[in-house]
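step=encode ok
step=design start
structure_in=
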């Protein structure tokens, strides 16, 4: 896969309508350079999760384009793009299904046929990166929500993707779990990170840029502090400022 392209994420004219006729995305366009951390914010139903699911082809829009690290999202590039975009679902139980943490984190590298020694190295590195280095033999369904989210993130990191797309990563976390997750995300400097979130403090503490969605359209895109602390703008779109 190529990650040398200046823009790791390019979305142009993306529009998507669900089978019931609901237009979830309307002519969405933006570009994210490599290694930038961007918060995608908006009220419920604004299209945040729908947009994230387009980045690795889980959803495919009828119009518009998605390009990841210079690769157009199409049938021929789909497997490479899915390896390039580490997606963290809002509910970690959607990603954790093996008998042990090690097996969950090893699943992706095994699927692409890496040798056992490389898989072992990647698993332990990914768990260390999320502060879960002693959990390889644990069973995920016995863990707290915060621990599950970290392990789910490690399953993405084990593929060493240039792009991480995190859907509501602080949802369901207690204050300690939330602080821990923010610390983990703040340390990432080898990936481009797009975080869909209702947590404005998370956005303010981890991201330099904010994209604000409303009814499937981008209504603001720019400096995080400028957007997040614009009380009028935030209230207009059903959100609160971080303070």
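sequence_out=
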């Amino acid at each position: 896969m190529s990650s040398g392209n200046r823009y790791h994420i390019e979305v142009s004219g993306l529009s998507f309508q669900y089978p019931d006729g609901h237009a979830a995305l309307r002519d969405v366009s933006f570009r994210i350079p490599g290694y930038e951390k961007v918060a995608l914010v908006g009220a419920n139903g604004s299209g945040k999760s729908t947009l994230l699911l387009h980045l690795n082809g889980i959803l495919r829009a009828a119009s518009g384009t998605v390009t990841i690290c210079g690769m157009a999202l199409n049938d021929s590039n789909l497997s490479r793009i899915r390896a390039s975009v580490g997606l963290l679902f809002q509910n970690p139980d959607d990603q954790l299904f093996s008998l042990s943490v090690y097996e969950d984190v090893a699943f992706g590298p095994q699927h692409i046929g890496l040798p056992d020694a490389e898989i072992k190295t990647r698993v332990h590195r990914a768990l260390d990166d999320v502060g879960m280095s002693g959990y390889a033999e644990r069973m995920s369904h016995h863990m707290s929500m915060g621990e599950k989210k970290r392990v789910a993130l490690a399953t993405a990191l084990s593929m060493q993707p240039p792009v991480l797309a995190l859907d509501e990563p602080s949802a369901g976390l207690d204050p300690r779990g939330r602080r821990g997750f923010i610390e983990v995300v703040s340390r990432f400097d080898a990936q481009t990170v797009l975080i869909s979130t209702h947590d404005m403090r998370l956005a303010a503490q981890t991201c330099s840029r904010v994209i604000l969605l409303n009814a499937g359209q981008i209504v603001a895109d720019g400096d995080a502090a400028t957007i997040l602390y614009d009380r009028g703008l935030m209230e207009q779109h059903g959100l609160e400022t971080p303070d």
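step=design ok
step=annotate ok -> The mean pLDDT is 94.
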